[in-house]
Write a structure and sequence with these properties.
The complex is a heterotrimer. Chain A has helices at about 15-30, 75-85, 115-120, 130-140, 145-155, 160-175; strands spanning about 5-10, 35-40, 45-55, 70-75, 90-95, 110. Chain A is of the alpha/beta class. Chain A is globular, with a radius of gyration of 15 Å. In chain B, helix 3 (about 60-70) packs parallel to helix 4 (about 80-95). Chain C is α/β, with parallel strands linked by helices. Chain C has one domain (about 15-265): 3-Layer(aba) Sandwich (Rossmann fold), CATH 3.40.50.970. Chain C is about 35% helix and about 20% strand. In chain C, helix 1 (about 20-35) crosses helix 6 and helix 3 (about 95-100) packs across helix 4 (about 100-110). The longest helix of chain C is centred in the first third of the chain and has 14 residues, at about 20-35. The chains are: A alpha/beta, B alpha/beta, C alpha/beta. Chains in contact: A-B, B-C. The interface of A and B includes residues 34, 37, 39 and 40 of A. Strand 10 (about 230) of chain B pairs parallel with strand 2 of chain C, so a sheet runs across the interface.
Chain lengths: ~180, ~375, ~270
């Protein structure tokens, strides 16, 4: 397989880092691949710009950060403005139109998904926004089996919220029409 | 390796390694980017009957692990830059009183409060000379999650073998990075238990009289043997002494017990060094970047090798000299102003063949940084 | 066991100056331990740095002579790691209240079962007569050649404010009281603070126009009184002696045992 380099970005508290951890963990635990997850963060616990990088490969990964992602997820305008120009030419950018107005002159492929509005309308709880986003990511870039990612989601969340998270994951997966 | 597979941060791998090695006492104070070590141990230690205490500051944390070690516990503290500065006086005490303990420093940018959430490797010399007075010290590091786990076990083993504090110098990138960890079954990796005295009760026990093999058996506080522990120069019973010959002999013992055992303490990893014309010397997160550049160069038939240092102190001079002296050029890849480079220069036959490729802006040194320096040094231009 | 059996005779005579109160305190602590019939192997004495700290070297227990100000932090590690030990921590006034002040208040707050003895001679003796945080205004010292302008801590009030569950004060003149208070302090379940005023004729006495040790002992006799005595009512400037606080409160190591119990049952994730 080719090396996948994915960057999740947004603001603190949106679950961006958790999403990255889950994706990488799924690769390692359920598909026996190599994966490394890193993050950069500031002093804020909530708000501020958060970024988490995931590299997935079937060979050893040395440099752990992503310089040029083939997939970038931006959940805020600030993160879009900061990171959209690092995407590989022809790479993918996933944004939520509620929060991000993308640049039409980009040479990346932009997928606008109404993640926030759909989650609030169907599930009424923004806590699972990141899991919904993961469902969409795995449909757009099928680097892992969706079951693997869902298993990793369930490993990480409180058993009380297993159903909610499963629904959110499915919601994101179905949101993307191929 | 077989075992339990986890996907964890470096700080968590350190905790797993400590528990594997038998750590049963932690004292600490919250500080970024090491806090996860404390948080995880607060949860994990009591499950096995171990003790976790959050002290009033880093000074107290360091003192508490020394006190606890004297009762027979295997002890750990974890901190970062400013907290490491605060621990220095008590670190010197552990050296002087020969008390085993392990100190984790997940490095961030400095001096002062510096760059708390960003990476640096700028405490290498502080680990060496942070506490006052002549002394030897052991400091180790690692570049990936599995190695953090294993080097943490090594740290406890060395602490017990040599009755010494051992510093683990990680950095923000490896501390927070997540990667696969395989935890082997207990017993697969050797764990060294404390050597306790076999002197029977009622017989004179000498806590500071080395055996012929150089080791000093201990006796736990609360046991039958009562003795004195002090930070002053002391005699073989631990009582203060200013006698010149005692001062001389104790100092020589403290230095020699570490520096004369490089084979047991100095760990390095070697990649493509046998024919290397360019040797990259690196450690911690920087070594990952260096490895990437090495692979890139080898694919292009350039003879680049990597010497990854896992023990920083005592500095593995002989290994460094062995591989660097036969190369045309040596590039030290690190995230500070050349702290290890100075050591490499002091170790090799041709110090003017040693170059520094560094980054100190709080971001991980990247592949282009190293490639560019390599191009310039090889005469291929920037 | 006679008190002499608790000392390391080969280190005598001690290094304290003639007239120093610390020897009286040493005897008082040892008598309390003797009357409580504690086994030598069950006692750990932890000290910091200064004249006071030398006390541990003279006693035949497990002894830990640590860093200036840090005795309570080391002692906390000893006690928390092995709660069955009796941990006694003699400290000087500068040692405990200046450089060690933070550790002191947090040990009071934590209520860990140890006994802190503050041997208060209101001066730094080992370094040659500088004022301490317990010297108070007007005291002459080598670093206050024209008189000290620093206010003093009141050890008892500080310990009470920090949550101390056993707080007492006596003086080197009141030997029997040292023994009785020390016994209660050691038996107290929790952190106990005993301030013992001690005389330093060499530095404090000479600098402050007190002719010698006996005159300083007279001061302890004449200028102190039992808590709530009629003498105190008549003369509020007298220093009170006795046990100011003695209350039941859950102890740190015992509280942690409950954490271990909860954690091993898996109640804590």
């Amino acid at each position: 397989m080719e090396k996948h380099k994915i960057v999740f970005s947004g603001s603190g508290g949106q679950g961006v880092i958790t999403a990255a951890v889950i994706l990488a963990e799924a690769a390692v635990i359920y598909e026996n691949l190599h994966a490394v997850q890193t993050q950069s963060y500031g002093p804020e616990a909530r708000g501020g710009a958060t970024r988490s990088d995931v590299v997935i490969s079937d060979t050893q990964i040395n440099y752990p950060k992503v310089t040029h992602p083939n997939l970038l997820v931006c959940l805020t305008q600030e993160s879009y403005n900061k990171y959209s120009n690092i995407v590989l030419p022809g790479g993918l950018i996933i944004t939520d139109p509620r929060h991000v107005v993308p640049n039409v002159n980009s040479d990346s492929i932009i997928k606008e998904l109404p993640l926030y509005d759909t989650v609030m309308e169907k599930l009424g709880n923004q806590i699972v926004l990141n899991v919904c986003m993961l469902g969409a990511v795995i449909k757009i870039l099928p680097v892992l089996k969706p079951e693997s990612v869902l298993k990793a989601v369930i490993d990480r969340v409180n058993p009380k919220f297993k159903d909610l998270n499963t629904k959110a994951f499915q919601l994101g997966y179905d949101m993307v029409k191929k | 390796m077989e075992g339990k597979v986890k996907f964890v941060q470096g700080n968590e791998a350190c905790v797993e390694g400590a528990l594997y090695a038998g750590c049963n006492f932690f004292a600490g104070y919250p500080i970024t980017p090491s806090t996860e070590v404390a948080e995880l141990l607060a949860s994990r230690l009591p499950k096995g009957g171990g003790k976790f205490i959050q002290m009033e500051d880093e000074i107290a944390s360091m003192c508490a692990i020394i006190g606890a070690s004297l009762t027979g516990s295997k002890t750990l503290t974890a901190t970062s830059g400013p907290g490491f500065s605060l621990k220095q006086e008590a670190l010197g005490y552990a050296i002087m009183a020969e008390i085993p303990c392990v100190i984790v420093n997940v490095q961030r940018g400095g001096p002062s409060t510096g760059n708390p959430t960003h990476v640096a490797q700028s405490d290498v010399m502080q680990a060496r000379w942070g506490t006052h007075g002549d002394h030897s010290i052991v400091a180790m590091t690692a570049s990936n999650i599995q190695d953090i786990f294993e080097i943490t076990i090594d740290a406890f083993n060395i602490a017990e073998t040599f009755r010494t504090p051992v510093i683990l110098l990680f950095d923000e990138v490896v501390g927070h990075m997540r990667e696969k960890l395989v935890i082997p079954e207990q017993g697969k990796i050797p764990v060294i238990e404390r050597l306790r005295t076999s002197v029977p009760p009622g017989t004179d026990y000498h806590p500071y009289l080395p055996r012929t093999d150089g080791r000093l058996p201990m006796s736990d506080f609360g046991g039958e043997h009562r003795y004195n522990v002090t930070g002053l120069f002391h005699d073989m019973w631990g009582f203060p002494s200013e006698k010149p010959e005692l001062v001389h002999n104790l100092m020589r013992h403290l230095i020699d017990k570490i520096d004369t055992h490089p084979n047991q303490i100095c760990k390095t990893k070697q990649y493509f060094l046998d024919d290397a014309e360019t040797v990259l010397v690196s450690y911690g997160a920087s070594a990952r970047t260096a490895m990437e550049v090495m692979n890139y160069s080898r694919e292009r038939e350039r003879k680049v090798g990597l010497l990854e240092l896992q023990t920083l102190w005592p500095f593995p001079r002989e290994t460094v000299a062995k591989y660097c002296d036969q190369a045309k050029r040596v590039i030290v890849v690190e995230m500070n102003m050349g702290q290890v480079m100075e050591q490499v220069k002091a170790s090799v036959k041709y110090p003017n063949h040693v170059f520094l490729c560094n980054r100190y802006d709080g971001t991980l040194i990247n592949v282009d940084d190293v490639k560019n320096v390599l191009r310039v040094i090889e005469g291929r231009g920037f | 066991m006679p008190v002499q059996d608790y000392i390391r005779k080969r280190f005598f005579p001690h290094i304290w100056c003639g007239g120093c109160g610390h020897g009286i305190i040493l005897k008082g602590i040892l008598s309390a331990i003797e009357e409580l019939q504690l086994q030598k192997k069950d006692v750990v004495m932890v000290s910091g740095i200064g004249c006071s700290s030398r006390i541990v070297g003279y006693t035949d227990f497990h002894t830990l002579h640590t860093l200036h100000g840090r005795a309570l932090a080391f002692a906390t590690g000893v006690k928390f790691s092995k709660p069955s030990l009796n941990v006694i921590v003699p400290m000087g006034d500068g040692d405990a209240m200046a450089i060690g002040g933070n550790h002191f208040i947090h040990a009071c707050r934590r209520n860990i079962n140890m006994t802190a003895v503050i041997m208060n001679n209101r001066i730094y003796g080992m370094t040659g007569g500088q004022f301490s945080p317990l010297s108070g205004q007007g005291v002459m010292a080598t670093t206050a050649p024209l008189g000290n302008i620093d206010y003093a801590f009141d050890t008892v009030e500080l310990a009470k404010g920090a949550g101390g569950t056993f707080v007492a004060r006596t003086t080197a003149y009141h030997y029997a009281e040292i023994v009785s208070i020390m016994k209660k302090a050691i038996q107290h379940k929790g952190f106990s603070v005993v301030e013992i005023l001690s005389q330093c004729p060499t530095y404090f006495g000479r600098k402050n126009k007190m002719k010698g040790a006996s005159e300083m002992m007279d001061f302890f006799k004449d200028r102190t009184t039992s808590i709530g005595s009629d003498a105190k009512k008549a003369d509020p400037t007298l220093i009170e002696r006795g046990i100011f606080v003695q209350k039941e409160s859950s102890e740190y190591c015992e509280n942690y045992d409950k954490i271990i119990e909860m954690a091993s049952k898996g109640k804590e994730s």
